[in-house]
Protein: Signal recognition particle receptor FtsY
Organism: Terriglobus roseus
Amino acid sequence: MPISLFNSGEKPKKPSFFQRMRDAVTGETSAAPETHDTETPATETPSTETIAPQTPLELLEREGSGTLPIVEPEMLSPIDLAQAADEAVERELGPEAVTPTPPPTAVPDPTRNEFGLKPMTSNFSFGGYASAEEEEAGFLDKMRSAVERTRDQFGDSLSSVLAMGRTVDDEVLDDLEAVLLTADIGSTTTQEVIRNLRQRARRENATTDDLKLMLKEELRAILDSVQQPTNHPPQPPEVIMMVGVNGTGKTTTSGKLAALYGTHGRKALLCAADTFRAAAIEQLEVWAKRSNVEIIKTKQGGDPSAALYDAMTAGKARGVDIVIVDTAGRLHNKAGLMAELDKMRRTAHKLVPGAPHQVFLVMDATTGQNGMQQARLFTESAGVTGIVLTKLDGTAKGGIVIAIARELRLPVVFAGTGEKMEDIIPFNSDAFLDSLLG
C-alpha cells in the first residue's frame, strides 16, 4: 500500500488521487468523510424550505413540477430506475409484492492492484504500477527510437554479412567480428562472442540464418547474466545516489527519475547535493518544478553531507518513498571528492539502515569505449549497483550496452531516450535486442 500523504487527526481525509481514479474507472463511490453536525437548539424555528424528493420515483413523479429541474430517465442509473419501479409496484400491490434486489457487488480482479492497475513486469522493480498499454506500446516505441541510429548502421552491415542461405565459414565470422566492433561492443566482448559462435556453428553446421539467431542468444546471455533483484528496503524511504563524472547528465536524470517514479505511484524527494558545480542547484530546482516534486537544497559551496542529512530527515518526516540524491561530478582519481562521497554514504546509512539502497553510475552513451575505463575504476570505489545510460538515442554505437554488462559486470537499469522529462525508460534486454536485431 502506498504511504498516506495526509496526517492523522480530527480533519476528515479526502479520497486519494488513485482512489478517485479507481472510482471513475470502476463506477464505485468512495465513502464520504464523516461529518459531525451541531444540534439545532430547541428554540430554533424549523426550516420551511421545500424538501427535495429523496427517491428516484419521486424524482420522476415531480418532473416538470417547478420545484426541481426536469429529470430525464436517461439521467438516472439502471439501479435507480429499478428502485423506482419497485416503489411503484409497492404502492399498487403492497410491500409483500416486491422482492428486494440486492445491490450488485463488484468482483475484484486478482490481476490488478487496489488502484485498478496491473503490476509492472519489467526486470527493474519500481514498487509501483503501470498500465499494460504503457508497458507494451510506449515502452517498445521508445526503445526502438532510442536504438534507431545504431540499428540503421549495425543492421545494414549485419544484413550484408549474413546473406540468406550462406554457409557459415571463417570469412563470415571475420566480417561479423568487424561489424560488432563498429557497434562499440568492445574487443574483449566481441572476441568472446565470435569464439562461442564459431564453436556452435561448426557443431550444428549452421547457416547464416541460424547464425543471426545464435548471435541474439549470445548477446542476451551476456545481458541477463548481470541482472539482479532490486534492493528495496522494508521501510521507506529508499535512497538512490546518482554518481559519475561531469557532463554525463546526472542532474537531468535525477529529475526524470523523480517524475517517472511519481507516475508509478511513488512520492519522490530530490536532494541537491551537487554544491560544487555552478548553477547545479538551480538546474535541479527547474526539474523539481517540472516533475512536481519537492527539493531539499543548500547554498552553493555548502557541505553536501549536510544537504543529504536534511533531505533524509525531511523524507522520513514527510513520508516520501524515494530520496534521489544528485551528487557532484567527480573523477575516480580525485581522492578528496571520493572521500566526500564516502562520507555521504555513511551519513545516509546512519539515518536509514542499508542506505544508500541504490547507487546509479550515470554514463554518456556517446562516449562509448572512451568512458569505459573511468567507469570501471569508478565502480570499484563507489559501490555502484547499476548503470543509467544517457543519450542512447544520440549515438550509433549502442553496442556499448553489451560491453558494460560484460566488462563492468553491472546491469543497465535505465536508458535516456531524449531530452524531454518522460524520455527515460527502464532497460529491458529482450526489448533492446528485438529493437536492435529484429
In short: The beta strands are 238-243, 268-273, 294-296, 322-327, 358-364, 386-390, 412-416, 424-426. Residues 81 and 295 are 52 Å apart (CA to CA).
